[in-house]
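Predict the 3D structure for this chain.
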Amino acid sequence: MRTARRPLSRGLGLGFRRIIAVSSVLVVATSCATQPRAAETLGSGSAPSLAAKPLPSGDRGQVSRLRLVTSDQGWLLTDRYLLSTNDGGTTWLDITPPRVAGSKRLRGAFFLDPRQGWLMAATPDRPNTSRTMTVFRTQDGGISWRTSTLPPLPSGGAIAYSYGVASLTFVDSQHGSARLSVGGEGNQYLVIDPTPMPTFATTDGGRSWSAVPPDYPPVPIANLPVPSAYRPDTANEGMVVFVSPTEAVLPVTFYTDTTSAIVFFISEDAGTTWRLGASLPDPNRFPFGQDQGIMNSVASQAWAVLFRDRIEVTDDRGRTWKTVRPTGFELLNTIDFVTPDVAWGLGTYRVCPGSAQACFKEGPMRSRDGGRTWSPLAL
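Done. Predicted structure below.
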């Protein structure tokens, strides 16, 4: 997705560099040649303007993503519907574009604020494959949508490739990117070497998209002031998060076979240079080969780190941390703190006594006491 590993820049013009935050990476692509480009289609570029609807009855699909935009406003994506809330998840509204509502074709979403958002949906070109992806965008919180398309996926020769889950991210209202997984018919898992990860960028708010070559890592470790204690360790870069137009935070996990730590790097010039921020080692050691599973959340008002048995939360960029021993779930897979007190997550929780599989349910959860107690978000 990146053709050159250079300092990040947000300047535009001939040969501009695109800042692209995707999946777990921030991507820098330098425009040096004409790229395949898909533009907005005028004939079908707008969806009807409709007020948000109450939740649909029946199967609402499997939750894949959720995110708080403010303490009360947020969104949740399933493979069938895009939902929004204005009261922290107590009640939900269906803001799915009508043409894909209930279709089991929703692949990714991102909202920059309560009004500006994007949604990706697969477009079947035969019964079980989708080599075209439609991008919906809204500027009124999902009341109305306009559309564009990504360049089509190659056929794959003997393998009927199909677009899978999309990681969709925007740095601002104009600059964003989409990175997609690829599967076979019915989006079944395929072992392909090298693994194709089609990646696309937009500089006009999603009206048009250009294919860009994947490249990893987003910010070379050599360009970061890594503490000497962690230089021999394996590094896993997280997603660069812009907490303001110029301030960015990059969490990096360093680990060995039995130890791990997370280090935050901070940029005040939109990623051109980085300085060392807070370091947070996991005090627990784990048996060789055991998943050490560190999750993190970065927002303007709070950073949080989820270890196996605790959550660390800071509201001062890591100068001080508050340790929380969370309860209310069996396993928490993701966390999203919008303030030091308010958070959402995806996890597994118990719905009845006993150890039978039926007594456990996976779904969205929330906390309003800084991650100490968690309860299911009802849909």
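Residues 227-376 form a domain with the Neuraminidase fold (CATH 2.120.10.10).
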